[in-house]
Design a protein that fits this description.
The chain is an alpha+beta fold. The protein is built from 21 helices and 19 strands. The site of adenosine-5'-triphosphate has 27 residues, from helix 3, helix 5, helix 7, helix 16 and strand 17. Magnesium ion binds near residues 161 and 406.
Length: about 575
């Protein structure tokens, strides 16, 4: 029952009362709607992709909401607010971006309707805040705990995230999710009773050729497209003591040693004697270099820059497995994994054994003719794992990588907060029902705002059904009826095109993702509904620079600059 003060008789009074500009609010809401429109058909398993033409001429094809938004050329502040929200959603929970954006858009559209009926934005927001609190509580009530070690739920939740991005068969999605689960098992650890799972610890390598189902997990950290520099070096070292070095090129060695070599290797050798002396000095320095490595126990050297041939020769004689041109991001990650410190200059810096990293095994690995990898296994600091993703083309590989990250995030979210809720719009319909009942406990305008929030929740199942080309009205009516009968797990089974029990078909979302998306979307509504003006900031540099119109004016300004030492 509606309260006393509710009715369509609310006049649009706030413009006069608060000085708010309805036109500005409406145009802001329109901008948000446009952004939502871009994203809305990317949600769910029957989503579409967008082709993004980048400034450098490259084309990016993706259905990932955050990737689309971060590449959007947006000038309008409201667009930037939505993009900022998407960024935060992606950074914190790594999934649910499309959900958050379409919810934000719907909250704003519903708010616009209420404003047309004369409600003030502040009243709407009060109702929205109440609704958010109740919705969060309800989500926690319906969430089901995931038992430690319940891998089936983890895999199914990962599949729910993956099947919205990759269009392969359910079997491939299943395999891909299993792979995500396997990889997390290798990098997960407990730190002071808390689960630690850093997605960055997983090394992802994309290889063209084959299909997604040929992707696999490698135990250990993989350096791609690198080989051991000399044929006489060992191909595998156990109990590795790893030195991470900037360079092993003679031209990079420090001052005094350089001078010892004759300052410049392009010296003019006037006599044979001089040439001989030069070569001897060179060999002495190289030997000293290698001796320093050997004496502190190095048996593996990973070098960021190059290595002179003569150095490679002596390293091979010393039995040190050496790899050159290892990218800095790899060096940095290996430093963390093995506990090594990066040594810039082995002559100037003391290369001591405590600067070496440890690993059970470092070895060369060539799974096919065209593939050369170096693998580091058994690192003491934490587990290391790599995934080799295969795909027919660049676009498929990049989307597969994004899907993998979504799956890894879902697993991490459930590990950190082991609770899941039904997907396929089931939780949103349950929230809509709950908030509808909750609204009845209020009177007047607040009741209208909570009802609007409740109705806005239906946008998720509605969009999922729309995108799958289903009879949305029929689906929504059936969903409402089923939830009315207490079937809280009833959602849209977009694959079979019917309402189903989400637990039965294994479509789960992590509670953490939904709660974050709901908060983020409400936040956007809160921010946008409080903006009553958009003010263009002046371009400071241009404004401050006096613009002389005449030659005399120019001279006068130059004179002033001199007198007052102005930096105009
Ligand atoms: N097989 C399925 N049937 C019904 N709904 C599904 C199915 N698989 C996933 N979903 C639903 O799709 C929604 C997630 O879709 P999607 O992954 O495209 O968007 P998002 O997670 O909000 O955004 P993004 O992944 O781009 O960050 C969730 O509501 C999820 O429950
Ligand atoms: Mg997703």
């Amino acid at each position: 029952m509606l309260g006393k003060d509710t009715s369509l008789s609310f006049k649009p009074v706030y413009k006069q009362e608060r000085g708010l500009d309805l036109a500005i609010l409406k145009s802001n809401i329109m901008v948000a709607s446009i952004i939502c429109q871009i994203v809305s058909n990317t949600i769910g398993p029957y989503s579409v992709n967008k082709a993004i033409l980048k400034k450098n001429g490259e084309v990016l094809i993706t259905g990932d909401a955050f990737t689309i938004l971060k590449n959007l050329k947006a000038e309008h502040p409201v667009a930037k607010i939505l993009i900022g929200m998407a960024k935060a959603q992606d950074a914190v929970v790594g999934d649910g971006v499309a959900t958050a954006v379409i919810l934000a858009g719907e909250f704003l559209r519903k708010a616009e309707n209420l404003m047309d009926q004369g409600l003030l934005p502040s009243t709407i927001l009060k109702g929205y805040d109440l609704a958010l609190k109740r919705a969060t509580k309800k989500l926690e009530e319906i969430a089901i705990p995931v038992k430690p070690g319940d891998e089936d739920i983890l895999r199914k939740s990962a599949s729910t995230a993956v099947n919205t991005k990759i269009t392969s068969s359910p079997e491939t999605v299943n395999e891909f999710s299993k792979m995500a689960l396997e990889v997390t098992k290798r990098v997960i650890s407990e730190v002071s009773g808390k689960t630690r799972l850093k997605i960055e610890d997983v090394k992802v390598i994309k290889k063209r050729g084959g299909s997604l189902s040929d992707s696999y997990v490698v135990d250990g950290y993989v350096i791609e497209d690198r080989e051991i520099v000399h044929p006489d070096m060992p191909r595998r070292v156990e109990n590795a003591k790893v030195a991470l070095l900037r360079s092993l090129e003679l031209k990079e060695i420090s001052g005094s040693w350089w001078e010892a070599l004759g300052k410049n290797m392009k010296i003019q050798v006037r006599a044979l004697e001089e040439h001989k002396a030069f070569l001897e000095k060179r060999v002495a320095i190289v030997k000293e270099m290698v001796t320093r490595l050997v004496s502190c126990g190095v048996n593996v050297a990973l070098v960021n820059k190059g290595i002179d041939e003569i150095v490679e020769h002596y390293l091979a004689r010393a039995g040190i497995l050496t790899v050159k041109r290892v990218f800095l991001p790899d060096i940095n990650r290996i430093a963390k994994l093995t506990g090594a410190s990066i040594v810039s200059d082995i002559f100037n810096e003391d290369l001591t054994s405590d600067k070496l990293g440890k690993a059970e095994v470092v070895e060369e690995w060539k799974p096919s003719e065209k593939e050369n990898y170096i693998v580091i296994r058994g690192c003491p600091a934490q587990g290391a794992s790599s995934v080799i993703i295969r795909g027919g083309n660049e676009y498929a590989l990049e989307e597969a990588e994004r899907s993998l990250y979504d799956a890894l995030h879902v697993i991490r979210n459930i590990k950190e907060d082991p609770r899941i809720i039904p997907g396929g719009g089931a939780s949103e319909i349950e929230l809509s029902k709950c908030l509808g009942e909750y609204a009845q406990t209020f009177e007047g305008k607040e009741q209208l705002a909570i009802l609007a929030y409740a109705e806005a929740m239906r946008i998720v199942p509605q969009t999922l059904a729309d995108n799958a080309g289903l009879d949305t009205l029929h689906i929504l009516t059936e969903l409402k009826a089923k939830h009315g009968e207490g079937m809280i797990w009833a959602g849209v089974n977009v694959i079979d095109g019917q309402v189903d029990d989400m637990q039965k078909i294994g479509v789960y979302d992590p509670l953490k993702v939904k709660v974050h998306a709901l908060n983020a979307a409400t936040d956007v509504a809160r921010i946008v509904l409080r903006i009553d003006q958009i003010i263009l900031a002046k371009d400071r540099k241009k404004e401050e620079e006096p613009k002389p119109e005449t030659e005399t004016g120019k001279k006068q300004i130059d004179a002033l600059k001199k007198v007052y030492d102005l930096k105009l």
